[in-house]
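SAMPLE LOG
Freezer: B-3
Tube label: C17
Construct: single chain, 132 aa
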Amino acid sequence: MTTPMPETFDEARLRLRAQAAEARERREALRETAAAIHAAHATVRSSDGTVSVTASADGAVTDVTVTESALDDTPAQASRTLTATVAAAQRRALENAVAASAERWGEGHPLVAELRQSAQRFTSEQRTWGYE
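STRUCTURE (predicted):
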């Protein structure tokens, strides 16, 4: 049985440099992914066309537009329409964030799977709240 020779100092240094370069590349890729997730948003119009909502992947509503014809709705109907449209915009923004991550890392990557699970939990919670 032969014992493998320990690597030389130069070999070890080259291996460590390669590992450091790979770590820098991964860190940059994670930064780009975080930026893509942060930038993910969606605009959704209500089925009756009276409300339009833009939301980001973190759930923040960044714009709401209400048409004049929305004033013809009862307050209860207007509230339901607005709430449903906000929920739909939030879901779509989350889907966009997951898609951006999958594009960068691939569908099978653990980060993508975790984001997808988080999005599914959020969507399930919205359903229990009645925001479908």
